[in-house]
Amino acid sequence: MIYRSWDAKKGLQYQCPHKAGRAICPLTDGCTIKMAWIRPVKDYRRFGYHINRGSQEWQALYHKRVAVERCNSRLKEMRRLSKHQFRGFERISVQATLAVLAMMAVALAKAKQGQLEEVRVCTRKVG
Q1: Distance set, CA 94 to CA 24, 32, 81, 101 (Å)
Q2: 69: buried, middle or exposed (CB in 10 Å: 19+, 13-18, 0-12)?
Q3: R_g (Cα) of the chain, nearest Å
Q4: Contact at 8 Å (CB) between 125 and 78?
Q5: Contact 11, 39 (CB under 8 A)
Q6: 3-state SS, one letter per residue, for the chain
Q7: Distance CA 10, CA 16 (A)
């Protein structure tokens, strides 16, 4: 099924790919589904919860994503998480946790010294 649109009352609208002209389906003779409406439930991952771009909810979620990606980038570049030499989830998890703790400790120390503009520059390159 191909996603078509979203309606606040009806939910998400999906259309048969053959009816949309995007695919050739061998089951078109017996298929009765042309379009389907699916109401999303609270588990938004199940149905691809649609948030209108530009809405306040979308802006809030996007700002959180930008902040997380910034931290991930710093951890990968400065704390060697992109080129780790550990195997196994538990070892990598320990390494990532230590890297995050080190980054937060440096940020806390700078905040306590009153260097609030330097809090985001809380990493140094690890060789």
Answers
A1: 50, 53, 11, 10
A2: exposed
A3: 23
A4: yes
A5: yes
A6: CEEEEEECCCEEEEECCCCCCCCCCCCCCCCCCCEEEECCCCCHHHHCCCCCCCCHHHHHHHHHHHHHHHHHHHHHHHCCCCCCCCCCHHHHHHHHHHHHHHHHHHHHHHHHCCCHHHCCCCCCCCC
A7: 18
Split the chain (127 residues) into runs of 10 and give each run's mean pLDDT: 77 78 71 76 57 79 83 80 79 85 86 80 57
Contact present, 14 and 43 (Cβ < 8 Å)? no
The tokens of 42 are what? 């609270």
Q: How far apart are CA 57 and CA 62, in angstroms?
A: 9
Q: Specify whether the CB–CB gap between 18 and 35 falls below 8 A.
A: no
